[in-house]
Design a protein that fits this description.
mainly alpha, two-stranded antiparallel sheet
Length: 119
Amino acid sequence: MRGWQLHSLLIEDGYLPGATICCISGSTHKVQYHSENYYEPWNSYPISQPIHVALHRRFSQPEAWTAILEHHSVTGQEWFAQLQMTPVDFAAELRAAHGSQITRVFDRVLGRYRGPGQF
């Protein structure tokens, strides 16, 4: 299961409202959720598709993301202005700290969401 599928499931079941307004630009066109941490998919941000693409490409194409930051960040303290510009292997950090069983992120989240054995 991919992140967008998990967000769709949470929306469908009423645990997450539909993504309607980009929290960065205010756009209402092609808004979708973004999550930096899929262990907490309910803590996601609605963002427009162009901003979402730039966010995911910020490591390989930082100019587009930097332009978005310059245009939309007011204080520099916004969640999106705090994102790192170098990739972090969060999964490797979790495996090192908690063992290999931690790698089944979606099973773990869905297990809590649906209950054991209710996938």
